[in-house]
Amino acid sequence: MPDIHDEDSLKPNPKPGVSHLDYAGEQGMAVEQETLVERSAEKREEARSLWGDAWRDLRRRPIFLISAALILLLVVMAIFPYAFTDTDPRKADLVHDYLRRPDYGDVFGGGWFGYDAQGRSIFARVVYGARASITVGIFVTATVTVLGGLTGMVAGYFGGAVDAVISRIVDIFFGIPLLLGALVLLNAFSTRTVWSVVVALGVLGWTQIARVMRGAVLTVKQADYVVAGRALGAGTGRLMFRHILPNAIAPVIVVATIALGGYIATEATLSFLGIGLQDPTISWGIDISSAQKVIRTAPYVLFFPAAALSVTVLAFIMLGDAVRDALDPKLR
Protein backbone atom coordinates (compact mmCIF):
# COMPACT_ATOMS: atom_id res chain seq x y z
CA MET A 1 0.00 0.00 0.00
CA PRO A 2 1.57 3.33 -1.01
CA ASP A 3 2.43 5.86 1.62
CA ILE A 4 0.22 8.95 1.39
CA HIS A 5 3.17 11.09 2.39
CA ASP A 6 5.22 9.80 -0.51
CA GLU A 7 4.79 12.24 -3.44
CA ASP A 8 6.11 9.72 -5.99
CA SER A 9 3.31 7.34 -5.12
CA LEU A 10 0.70 9.94 -6.14
CA LYS A 11 2.13 10.46 -9.66
CA PRO A 12 0.42 8.57 -12.52
CA ASN A 13 2.22 5.41 -13.52
CA PRO A 14 3.17 5.24 -17.17
CA LYS A 15 2.50 2.19 -19.30
CA PRO A 16 5.00 -0.66 -18.98
CA GLY A 17 8.05 -0.02 -21.08
CA VAL A 18 7.33 3.71 -21.37
CA SER A 19 9.50 6.23 -19.60
CA HIS A 20 8.14 9.17 -17.60
CA LEU A 21 9.36 11.62 -20.25
CA ASP A 22 7.57 9.80 -23.07
CA TYR A 23 4.39 9.60 -21.02
CA ALA A 24 4.49 13.32 -20.26
CA GLY A 25 5.02 14.00 -23.97
CA GLU A 26 1.94 11.98 -24.88
CA GLN A 27 -0.13 13.87 -22.32
CA GLY A 28 1.09 17.21 -23.70
CA MET A 29 0.20 16.23 -27.27
CA ALA A 30 -3.30 15.17 -26.16
CA VAL A 31 -3.87 18.48 -24.36
CA GLU A 32 -2.60 20.41 -27.40
CA GLN A 33 -4.90 18.50 -29.76
CA GLU A 34 -7.86 19.14 -27.47
CA THR A 35 -7.02 22.85 -27.41
CA LEU A 36 -6.85 22.97 -31.21
CA VAL A 37 -10.25 21.29 -31.49
CA GLU A 38 -11.77 23.81 -29.09
CA ARG A 39 -10.24 26.74 -31.00
CA SER A 40 -11.51 25.42 -34.34
CA ALA A 41 -14.99 25.07 -32.84
CA GLU A 42 -14.81 28.65 -31.57
CA LYS A 43 -13.72 29.86 -35.02
CA ARG A 44 -16.64 28.03 -36.64
CA GLU A 45 -18.95 29.68 -34.14
CA GLU A 46 -17.49 33.11 -34.94
CA ALA A 47 -17.61 32.57 -38.73
CA ARG A 48 -21.38 32.85 -38.99
CA SER A 49 -23.11 34.12 -42.09
CA LEU A 50 -24.94 37.42 -42.39
CA TRP A 51 -28.26 35.64 -42.00
CA GLY A 52 -27.06 33.75 -38.93
CA ASP A 53 -25.90 36.96 -37.30
CA ALA A 54 -29.17 38.67 -38.23
CA TRP A 55 -31.30 35.89 -36.76
CA ARG A 56 -29.24 35.88 -33.57
CA ASP A 57 -29.68 39.65 -33.28
CA LEU A 58 -33.41 39.55 -34.06
CA ARG A 59 -34.14 37.07 -31.27
CA ARG A 60 -32.82 39.61 -28.77
CA ARG A 61 -34.98 42.51 -30.00
CA PRO A 62 -38.31 43.04 -28.19
CA ILE A 63 -39.67 44.95 -31.20
CA PHE A 64 -39.14 41.92 -33.43
CA LEU A 65 -40.70 39.52 -30.94
CA ILE A 66 -43.78 41.72 -30.40
CA SER A 67 -44.32 42.43 -34.10
CA ALA A 68 -43.76 38.77 -35.06
CA ALA A 69 -46.30 37.67 -32.44
CA LEU A 70 -48.88 40.17 -33.73
CA ILE A 71 -48.31 39.14 -37.36
CA LEU A 72 -48.59 35.46 -36.46
CA LEU A 73 -51.89 36.17 -34.70
CA LEU A 74 -53.19 38.10 -37.71
CA VAL A 75 -52.16 35.37 -40.15
CA VAL A 76 -53.87 32.69 -38.05
CA MET A 77 -56.94 34.93 -37.83
CA ALA A 78 -56.96 35.35 -41.60
CA ILE A 79 -56.67 31.61 -42.24
CA PHE A 80 -58.96 30.36 -39.46
CA PRO A 81 -61.40 33.19 -38.62
CA TYR A 82 -64.00 30.71 -37.36
CA ALA A 83 -61.59 29.78 -34.55
CA PHE A 84 -62.06 33.26 -33.07
CA THR A 85 -65.80 33.74 -33.50
CA ASP A 86 -68.80 31.63 -34.45
CA THR A 87 -70.86 34.67 -35.46
CA ASP A 88 -71.72 35.19 -39.12
CA PRO A 89 -70.16 38.56 -40.15
CA ARG A 90 -72.82 39.07 -42.83
CA LYS A 91 -75.83 38.36 -40.65
CA ALA A 92 -77.80 41.59 -40.17
CA ASP A 93 -80.64 42.23 -37.73
CA LEU A 94 -81.81 45.83 -37.96
CA VAL A 95 -84.67 45.27 -35.50
CA HIS A 96 -82.65 44.00 -32.54
CA ASP A 97 -79.01 44.90 -33.25
CA TYR A 98 -79.12 48.33 -34.92
CA LEU A 99 -76.09 50.21 -33.46
CA ARG A 100 -76.27 48.12 -30.30
CA ARG A 101 -73.51 49.24 -27.95
CA PRO A 102 -70.55 46.99 -27.11
CA ASP A 103 -70.99 44.38 -24.39
CA TYR A 104 -67.47 44.08 -23.00
CA GLY A 105 -68.54 41.16 -20.83
CA ASP A 106 -69.35 39.12 -23.94
CA VAL A 107 -65.69 38.29 -24.67
CA PHE A 108 -65.22 36.79 -28.17
CA GLY A 109 -68.98 36.96 -28.60
CA GLY A 110 -70.92 38.67 -31.36
CA GLY A 111 -71.70 41.71 -29.22
CA TRP A 112 -68.22 42.22 -27.80
CA PHE A 113 -67.48 45.24 -30.04
CA GLY A 114 -71.14 46.13 -30.60
CA TYR A 115 -73.08 46.17 -33.89
CA ASP A 116 -72.96 48.46 -36.90
CA ALA A 117 -75.71 50.43 -38.67
CA GLN A 118 -76.88 47.28 -40.47
CA GLY A 119 -77.05 45.19 -37.32
CA ARG A 120 -73.91 43.18 -38.07
CA SER A 121 -71.38 42.07 -35.45
CA ILE A 122 -68.38 44.41 -35.51
CA PHE A 123 -66.13 41.86 -33.81
CA ALA A 124 -66.95 39.20 -36.41
CA ARG A 125 -66.27 41.66 -39.24
CA VAL A 126 -62.97 42.72 -37.69
CA VAL A 127 -61.90 39.07 -37.49
CA TYR A 128 -62.99 38.17 -41.02
CA GLY A 129 -61.67 41.45 -42.43
CA ALA A 130 -58.10 40.36 -41.65
CA ARG A 131 -58.24 37.84 -44.49
CA ALA A 132 -58.63 40.43 -47.27
CA SER A 133 -56.00 42.78 -45.86
CA ILE A 134 -53.37 40.10 -45.19
CA THR A 135 -54.00 38.45 -48.57
CA VAL A 136 -53.60 41.73 -50.45
CA GLY A 137 -50.49 42.68 -48.49
CA ILE A 138 -48.70 39.34 -48.93
CA PHE A 139 -49.50 38.80 -52.61
CA VAL A 140 -48.77 42.38 -53.65
CA THR A 141 -45.45 42.23 -51.82
CA ALA A 142 -44.58 38.92 -53.48
CA THR A 143 -45.50 40.31 -56.91
CA VAL A 144 -43.48 43.52 -56.62
CA THR A 145 -40.52 41.67 -55.08
CA VAL A 146 -40.30 39.17 -57.93
CA LEU A 147 -41.01 41.68 -60.71
CA GLY A 148 -38.89 44.49 -59.30
CA GLY A 149 -36.12 42.17 -58.14
CA LEU A 150 -35.66 40.53 -61.54
CA THR A 151 -35.84 43.86 -63.35
CA GLY A 152 -33.31 45.53 -61.07
CA MET A 153 -30.97 42.54 -61.19
CA VAL A 154 -30.94 42.49 -64.99
CA ALA A 155 -30.35 46.25 -65.15
CA GLY A 156 -27.55 46.20 -62.60
CA TYR A 157 -25.77 43.13 -63.96
CA PHE A 158 -25.72 43.94 -67.67
CA GLY A 159 -25.42 47.73 -67.39
CA GLY A 160 -24.88 49.83 -70.48
CA ALA A 161 -27.81 50.17 -72.88
CA VAL A 162 -29.86 47.55 -71.02
CA ASP A 163 -29.53 49.49 -67.78
CA ALA A 164 -30.38 52.77 -69.52
CA VAL A 165 -33.57 51.42 -71.11
CA ILE A 166 -34.79 49.68 -67.95
CA SER A 167 -33.99 52.72 -65.80
CA ARG A 168 -36.09 54.97 -68.04
CA ILE A 169 -39.01 52.52 -67.85
CA VAL A 170 -38.65 52.47 -64.06
CA ASP A 171 -38.67 56.28 -64.00
CA ILE A 172 -41.91 56.37 -66.00
CA PHE A 173 -43.70 53.99 -63.63
CA PHE A 174 -42.14 55.67 -60.59
CA GLY A 175 -43.65 58.98 -61.66
CA ILE A 176 -47.19 57.57 -61.41
CA PRO A 177 -48.60 58.00 -57.88
CA LEU A 178 -49.52 54.58 -56.52
CA LEU A 179 -52.93 55.56 -55.18
CA LEU A 180 -53.94 57.59 -58.25
CA GLY A 181 -52.74 54.92 -60.66
CA ALA A 182 -54.61 52.22 -58.72
CA LEU A 183 -57.79 54.30 -58.91
CA VAL A 184 -57.50 54.46 -62.68
CA LEU A 185 -56.69 50.77 -63.13
CA LEU A 186 -59.40 49.51 -60.78
CA ASN A 187 -62.04 51.48 -62.67
CA ALA A 188 -61.31 49.21 -65.62
CA PHE A 189 -62.53 46.14 -63.66
CA SER A 190 -66.25 45.41 -63.71
CA THR A 191 -66.03 43.55 -60.40
CA ARG A 192 -63.28 44.46 -57.94
CA THR A 193 -62.05 41.55 -55.87
CA VAL A 194 -58.92 40.88 -53.85
CA TRP A 195 -57.06 39.75 -56.97
CA SER A 196 -58.05 42.90 -58.86
CA VAL A 197 -56.45 45.00 -56.15
CA VAL A 198 -53.36 42.74 -56.15
CA VAL A 199 -52.93 43.22 -59.91
CA ALA A 200 -53.40 46.99 -59.75
CA LEU A 201 -50.95 47.51 -56.88
CA GLY A 202 -48.47 44.97 -58.23
CA VAL A 203 -48.28 46.60 -61.66
CA LEU A 204 -47.51 50.00 -60.14
CA GLY A 205 -45.56 49.19 -56.97
CA TRP A 206 -42.46 47.35 -58.25
CA THR A 207 -40.30 50.38 -59.06
CA GLN A 208 -38.86 50.93 -55.58
CA ILE A 209 -37.76 47.29 -55.30
CA ALA A 210 -36.18 47.53 -58.78
CA ARG A 211 -34.11 50.55 -57.77
CA VAL A 212 -32.95 48.95 -54.52
CA MET A 213 -32.00 45.70 -56.26
CA ARG A 214 -30.16 47.52 -59.04
CA GLY A 215 -28.03 49.44 -56.54
CA ALA A 216 -27.24 46.27 -54.57
CA VAL A 217 -26.26 44.34 -57.71
CA LEU A 218 -23.98 47.16 -58.90
CA THR A 219 -22.10 46.83 -55.61
CA VAL A 220 -22.02 43.03 -55.39
CA LYS A 221 -20.97 42.33 -58.98
CA GLN A 222 -17.63 44.04 -58.33
CA ALA A 223 -16.78 41.56 -55.56
CA ASP A 224 -13.78 39.26 -55.97
CA TYR A 225 -15.79 36.04 -55.91
CA VAL A 226 -17.97 37.26 -58.79
CA VAL A 227 -14.93 38.30 -60.83
CA ALA A 228 -13.29 34.94 -60.08
CA GLY A 229 -16.41 33.04 -61.06
CA ARG A 230 -16.59 34.91 -64.36
CA ALA A 231 -12.89 34.20 -65.01
CA LEU A 232 -13.46 30.49 -64.36
CA GLY A 233 -16.18 30.40 -67.00
CA ALA A 234 -19.33 30.49 -64.88
CA GLY A 235 -22.43 31.28 -66.92
CA THR A 236 -24.60 34.37 -66.57
CA GLY A 237 -27.41 32.47 -64.87
CA ARG A 238 -25.10 30.88 -62.33
CA LEU A 239 -23.42 34.17 -61.50
CA MET A 240 -26.72 36.02 -61.12
CA PHE A 241 -28.68 33.46 -59.10
CA ARG A 242 -25.95 31.61 -57.20
CA HIS A 243 -23.49 34.39 -56.37
CA ILE A 244 -25.06 37.83 -56.83
CA LEU A 245 -28.69 37.31 -55.76
CA PRO A 246 -28.02 35.76 -52.30
CA ASN A 247 -25.68 38.64 -51.44
CA ALA A 248 -27.89 41.42 -52.85
CA ILE A 249 -31.28 40.32 -51.52
CA ALA A 250 -30.92 41.68 -47.96
CA PRO A 251 -31.91 45.33 -48.66
CA VAL A 252 -34.76 44.13 -50.86
CA ILE A 253 -36.20 42.05 -48.00
CA VAL A 254 -36.05 45.06 -45.70
CA VAL A 255 -37.86 47.34 -48.17
CA ALA A 256 -40.46 44.69 -49.01
CA THR A 257 -41.24 44.01 -45.34
CA ILE A 258 -41.83 47.67 -44.60
CA ALA A 259 -43.80 48.17 -47.83
CA LEU A 260 -46.16 45.30 -46.97
CA GLY A 261 -47.83 47.40 -44.30
CA GLY A 262 -48.15 50.26 -46.78
CA TYR A 263 -49.96 48.04 -49.28
CA ILE A 264 -52.45 46.99 -46.61
CA ALA A 265 -53.10 50.65 -45.83
CA THR A 266 -53.46 51.42 -49.55
CA GLU A 267 -56.04 48.65 -49.97
CA ALA A 268 -58.03 50.03 -47.05
CA THR A 269 -57.84 53.53 -48.55
CA LEU A 270 -59.10 52.31 -51.92
CA SER A 271 -61.95 50.43 -50.24
CA PHE A 272 -62.78 53.49 -48.17
CA LEU A 273 -63.04 55.57 -51.35
CA GLY A 274 -65.32 52.97 -52.93
CA ILE A 275 -62.80 52.00 -55.63
CA GLY A 276 -61.22 49.02 -53.91
CA LEU A 277 -62.94 45.91 -52.61
CA GLN A 278 -66.70 45.60 -52.87
CA ASP A 279 -69.40 43.70 -51.02
CA PRO A 280 -69.75 40.85 -50.25
CA THR A 281 -65.99 40.96 -49.53
CA ILE A 282 -65.37 41.91 -45.91
CA SER A 283 -62.76 44.64 -45.57
CA TRP A 284 -61.73 47.02 -42.83
CA GLY A 285 -61.72 49.85 -45.36
CA ILE A 286 -65.36 49.16 -46.32
CA ASP A 287 -66.39 49.13 -42.65
CA ILE A 288 -64.54 52.38 -41.96
CA SER A 289 -66.29 53.98 -44.93
CA SER A 290 -69.70 52.83 -43.67
CA ALA A 291 -68.96 54.02 -40.13
CA GLN A 292 -68.41 57.68 -41.09
CA LYS A 293 -72.18 58.18 -41.33
CA VAL A 294 -72.76 57.32 -37.65
CA ILE A 295 -69.45 58.40 -36.16
CA ARG A 296 -71.06 60.98 -33.85
CA THR A 297 -73.73 58.73 -32.39
CA ALA A 298 -71.74 55.45 -32.42
CA PRO A 299 -67.97 56.09 -32.58
CA TYR A 300 -67.21 52.45 -31.69
CA VAL A 301 -68.37 51.43 -35.19
CA LEU A 302 -65.36 53.31 -36.58
CA PHE A 303 -62.91 52.70 -33.77
CA PHE A 304 -62.54 48.91 -33.87
CA PRO A 305 -61.90 48.36 -37.61
CA ALA A 306 -59.62 51.40 -37.66
CA ALA A 307 -57.70 50.07 -34.65
CA ALA A 308 -57.30 46.66 -36.31
CA LEU A 309 -55.96 48.32 -39.47
CA SER A 310 -53.54 50.52 -37.50
CA VAL A 311 -52.18 47.60 -35.45
CA THR A 312 -51.64 45.52 -38.58
CA VAL A 313 -49.77 48.24 -40.46
CA LEU A 314 -47.72 49.09 -37.37
CA ALA A 315 -46.76 45.44 -36.83
CA PHE A 316 -45.30 45.10 -40.33
CA ILE A 317 -43.48 48.43 -40.11
CA MET A 318 -41.96 47.41 -36.75
CA LEU A 319 -40.91 44.08 -38.24
CA GLY A 320 -39.28 45.83 -41.19
CA ASP A 321 -37.38 48.20 -38.90
CA ALA A 322 -36.10 45.30 -36.80
CA VAL A 323 -34.99 43.37 -39.90
CA ARG A 324 -33.28 46.47 -41.29
CA ASP A 325 -31.31 47.02 -38.08
CA ALA A 326 -30.31 43.35 -37.93
CA LEU A 327 -29.13 43.15 -41.56
CA ASP A 328 -27.22 46.43 -41.57
CA PRO A 329 -23.82 45.95 -39.83
CA LYS A 330 -23.41 49.73 -39.50
CA LEU A 331 -26.41 49.93 -37.16
CA ARG A 332 -25.09 47.34 -34.69
Furnish the topology, listing elements before pairings.
Layout: H1 7-10, H2 20-46, H3 50-58, H4 62-79, H5 94-97, H6 122-158, H7 160-174, H8 178-186, H9 194-204, H10 207-220, H11 224-231, H12 236-248, H13 250-272, H14 284-291, H15 300-327
Write up this protein.
The protein is mainly alpha-helical and 332 residues long. The protein is built from 15 helices and no strands. Helix 4 (62-79) packs across helix 15, helix 11 (224-231) packs antiparallel against helix 12 (236-248) and helix 13 (250-272) packs antiparallel against helix 15 (300-327). It is elongated, with a radius of gyration of 30 Å. The termini are far apart. Mean pLDDT is 84; it is low at 20-26 and 40-47.
Computed structural class: mainly alpha
Q: What is the 3D form?
A: elongated
- Sketch the topology as an H/E string, one letter per element: HHHHHHHHHHHHHHH
What percentage of residues falls in helices of 4 or more residues?
55-70%
**Overall average residue pLDDT:** 84
Strand content: under 5%
What profile does the largest beta sheet have?
none
Ends apart, CA distance between termini: 64 Å
User: What Rg do the Cα atoms give?
Assistant: 30 Å
Residue ranges: pLDDT <50 for 5 or more in a row?
20-26, 40-47
Number of helices: 15
Number of extended strands: 0
